[in-house]
Amino acid sequence: MEQKPARVRVLDAAHELMLTVGLARATTKEIAKAAGCSEAALYKYFPSKEELFIQVLRERLPRLTPLLRSLAAEPGRRTPEENLTEIARQAALFYEQSFPIAASLYAETQLKRRHDEAMRQMGSGPHLPIEELDAYLRAEQALGRIGPDADTFAAASLLLGACAQRAFAYDSTPTGERPPLDDFAPRLARALLAGISVADGRR
User: Fold this and answer.
1) Tell me, what's the pLDDT at 180?
2) Where would you tag: which of 32, 115, 169, 192 has the fewest CB atoms within 10 A of its CB?
3) Residues 30, 164, 188, 127: what is their CA dihedral angle, to the nearest 10 degrees?
4) CA 78, CA 100: separation in Å to the nearest integer?
């Protein structure tokens, strides 16, 4: 069987290690070893572990950012309810899969500070989906499909906050099961629209 390209192997190895041991403990040395290449080869494709982390989020997890950007660029393609349902679905999956990767950062304060600073320098960070969802809602507002007085930033924060909460709030329950996504996403979209839409937010 033909071997995968080195960049793909590095991303696969990084994703697996970040899921199993956490971002803090997934060193570039271990990632390179798991990918079957040298650290020098890893750095050829990814100048830092932070850059590698960002690419894992972009290429191995549900594609939340492209969805938000495409909707903001072309609002009105479907109803707000349909769009927000799909956003909630992708956001819930994204947070469910990304939290196990990033959670270990919160146990090491200095490492998290360095990581946060690197994210800022690269123009990335967990605040971006909120800003992008806010941009989409403002675009819908301009079309008259979201109420003119609606606080779109608060609405974006509420929707994504609920999706993030679903990712970790249910692990300690007796069953450890999260609310079913096919039920959670449309209910969340409808609840949000009840507060920000015009007379018929589903149009």
Assistant:
1) 93
2) 169
3) -100
4) 33
